[in-house]
Amino acid sequence: MFESIDFKSVFTQFTNQKVLIIGDVMIDTYLWGSVARVSPEAPVPIVSGVIEENRLGGAANVALSIKALGAVPILCSVIGDDDRGKLILELMEEQLLSDIGLVVDEHRVTTQKTRIISGNQHLLRVDEEMDIFLNKRVQEEFIELITSLLESGGIDAIIMQDYDKGVLTPRVISEVISASERVVVPVLVDPKFRSFDLYKKVKLFKPNFRELTKGLNLDIKKKEIDKLAEAVKKFQIKQQIENLLVTLSDQGVLNSGDGELVHIPAVKREITDVSGAGDTVIAVAALCLISGLTPAEAAAVSNLAGGQVCEKAGVVPVSSETLLAECKEYFKSS
């Protein structure tokens, strides 16, 4: 299916890329502990020996993967003027991520997802968030900031990472796509439900299976690849999308681009945690496409990357070295 690729050269090209990541950021908090007994108060496990860890999540995790692959990320988002917002800034500073694309809204609550984990078993998640759209004043400030960053030049791609928390409003989506056309910068989208059909004329649209079926109101099973492919093609034509990549977890990925529709099976792995796999896929796909790989090749590399992060507990960025090694082996044998 794939021709010989010099992956070392491709990965080296990543270091020349600068990517604007626009979307919802959040704190991923982990409470790691162990379970030895059940509560006498209710039939629930008691977690003891808890260690708390905070990580960057959402669009910030995409930025971390872009950085891990050697490229330069610029994260654009809106955070609250609260303790969680301050923690976002602290974590970004620790990870050497620039905050020039952030807007602070005193009326907004910064999203935090808290996961309670025993061993590798995910017991519970608690979400604290605000998902209403940005108000008019904040939208205008945010759009002006993004436009300024784009017009300053040097941006090679835009990733719109939508978690349905209200940062990517219909107006923000429209204005960013219009601005991208003016400066001729490709837009790649990881969508959610609320604004699913607002993304038009983009280079890549990457829903997962649940997002696609809910967004298009489809009653299709994951293994019905032919029916899925037909729905994908219709939506792609309607929205004038250049490439459409659907992630199917254990069924791999389905990619439609360059007039070619390809189903790439998943590589068998020991899955620990699927959190953040979509962030990894969109980051890797973006860098692969702007570095010259075909849509099918970019989909295959992204498929490997998404699988790799699922082998680790919690939301983690992709490892450039590990991915490069597996790409060389996979493409040699595919």
Uncertain residue segments: none
Strand residue content: 25-35%
Order of helices and strands: HEEEHEHEEEHEHEEHHEEEHHH
How many strand units? Answer: 13
Average pLDDT metric: 92
Report the C-alpha radius of gyration, rounded.
Answer: 20 Å
Classify the helix fraction into a percent range. Answer: 25-40%
CATH architecture: 3-Layer(aba) Sandwich
The largest beta-sheet arranges its strands as 5-4-1-8-9-10-11-12-13
Task: Lay out the secondary structure.
Layout lengths: L6 H8 L3 E6 L1 E14 L6 E14 H10 L3 E9 L2 H12 L7 E4 L5 E8 L2 E8 L7 H16 L5 E5 L8 H14 L3 E4 L13 E2 L3 H7 L9 H15 L3 E5 L5 E5 L2 E5 L12 H14 L4 H15 L10 H14 L1
Parallel strand pairs: 1-4, 1-8, 2-6, 4-5, 8-9, 9-10, 10-11
Antiparallel strand pairs: 2-3, 6-7, 11-12, 12-13
Helix pairs in contact: 2-8, 4-5, 8-9, 9-10
Short description:
With about 325 residues, this protein is α/β, with parallel strands linked by helices. The chain has helices spanning about 5-15, 60-70, 85-95, 135-150, 170-185, 210-215, 225-240, 275-290, 295-310, 320-334, and strands spanning about 20-25, 25-40, 45-60, 70-80, 100-105, 110-120, 120-130, 155-160, 185-190, 205, 245, 255, 260-265. Helices cover about 35% and strands about 25% of the residues.
